[in-house]
Design a protein that fits this description.
alpha/beta, three-stranded mixed β-sheet, 41% helix, 12% strand, globular, binds ligand V47, binds iron/sulfur cluster
Length: 400
């Protein structure tokens, strides 16, 4: 919910931002029109300083991260030809197509057996062969082997896909997955909700209203989720704001979103990038920072704004800590989706690297669990070395 933010209006060079700064000072909610002004203003520092003030009012100088590991069990996807922005998916017989057996998933997860990982982030393609049983078996096996590890799995699009091939309702699929071990859901698959945009970049994908519908169902069942927006492709500023409005409205209704993560479009090795002639030109740092700042200011009912360093580089993520961001993607271990479309960032980050990134911005690092409970705050000289039995994942990471 909006809160009164003690903000110094003299920081704003663009007069168009002044009414927005005044609203912040009165604790008033921003409108979609305000959002358009924020996106269009040349005064990025003005926008950022408002987002920073709002973020500090909630989180002070603390920046959180989780020790997580991505697992992408299959890249086989029925939408391979129609999600033209995706470079990760393959048709079943295409070169590079893969589908992990349970043993392969467990082998990848074993990397976590040394105690590093607290969360698995599991997402993949819409594969006709991976129905409900594939995932319930996987989640049960993971929980049996590593009961302490949180399972954040399956986007709304994957839930709807499983429901369709199993002829079940979204709710029944979610209940079955939860019984097998699913704890929360990631926010992927949202792209940009505008129908015109979807027609151009993902015309067969679950629409915006249904993405919201699956998340509403999850929230109603008590399953918390994240939300995202893919930006920097063919969408307009108005499309972005209409998308954010749908997210904010659902959050008003359910309060089920934990975090918002804007995702920067990568144009390499996908049909859309070629069509747009954008090879090698990802989003700009300017736009990355602005998307995060607008997320913080407009989505006043979503507590956590996360920067995904894999997509926008660790350098932009570090700067974003002064543009409204209080949470950064964690250790990851191995990332496939963005590295299929031109991401040149590392596939994982060690604890010392994360700590120095956060401290380098003058912030205080803290490890969190998947529900954002802070597990450990790192003091200025804390290297993450173990401090007794409870030092946990972070300590192990320091030596990894
Ligand atoms: O929905 C696909 C995106 C998303 C490209 O919830 C692309 O904590 C850029 O949602 N360029 C999946 N992006 C990943 C995701 C996510 C990531 C990190 C954290 C969380 C969370 C969620 O990846 C897809 C799609 O929007 N994607 N292709 C591309 N060419
Ligand atoms: Fe499949 Fe997701 Fe890629 Fe679309 S974005 S082709 S649904 S893996």
């Amino acid at each position: 919910m909006p809160q009164v933010v003690d903000f110094d209006l003299t920081k704003l060079r663009d007069p168009a931002l002044r009414p927005i700064g005044e609203k912040l000072r009165r604790g008033e909610r921003l409108t979609e029109t305000d959002g358009v002004v924020l996106f269009r203003s040349p005064d990025l520092l003005g926008v950022g300083s408002m987002a920073d003030a709002s973020n500090r009012a909630r989180h002070g100088d603390q920046v959180t991260f989780a020790a997580n590991q991505h697992i992408n069990p299959t890249n086989i996807c029925v939408l391979r030809k129609t999600c033209v922005f995706c470079g990760y998916a393959r048709l079943p017989k295409e070169e590079g197509a893969y589908r992990y057996s349970l043993e392969q998933v467990m082998a990848e997860a074993e990397q976590a057996a040394n105690g590093i990982t607290r969360e698995f982030h599991i997402v993949g393609g819409l594969d006709m062969q991976t129905g409900l049983a594939y995932y319930t078996t996987m989640f049960r096996a993971l929980k049996a082997k590593l009961p302490h590890v949180h399972i954040k799995a399956l986007t709304a699009v994957e839930i709807a896909h499983i429901a369709r091939i199993e002829k079940m309702s979204w709710a029944d699929v979610l209940v079955a997955l939860r019984e097998a071990g699913l704890d929360t859901m990631p926010g992927g698959g949202a792209e940009t909700f505008s129908e015109a945009v979807r027609d151009e970049i993902a015309d067969k994908k679950l629409g915006g209203a249904d993405y919201i519908g699956v998340h509403r169902t999850a929230h109603t069942l008590g399953i918390r989720t994240n939300c995202t927006m893919l930006y920097g492709h063919v969408e307009t500023i108005e499309d972005r704001m209409a998308h954010l409005k749908m997210l904010r409205d659902l959050q008003d209704e359910t309060g089920g979103f934990l975090a918002y993560i804007p995702l920067a479009y990568h144009p390499d090795d996908n049909e859309l990038g070629e069509k747009l002639g954008r090879k090698g030109t990802s989003s700009t740092g300017f736009d990355d920072l602005r998307n995060l700042a607008v997320g913080r200011l407009y989505l006043d009912n979503i507590e956590h704004i996360k920067s995904h360093w894999i997509m926008v580089t660790p350098f932009v993520t570090q700067t974003a800590l002064h543009f409204g961001v209080n949470d950064i993607e964690g250790t990851v271990v191995r990332e496939k989706i963005y590295h299929a479309v031109g991401a040149t960032t590392p596939q994982g980050m060690t604890l010392p690297a994360l700590l120095s990134l956060i401290r380098g911005a003058g912030k205080v690092p803290a490890e969190r669990d998947s529900f954002y409970k802070v597990l450990r705050v790192f003091g200025p000289d804390d290297t993450g070395e173990a401090e007794g039995a409870d030092a946990g994942a972070a300590a192990e990471l320091a030596t990894a």
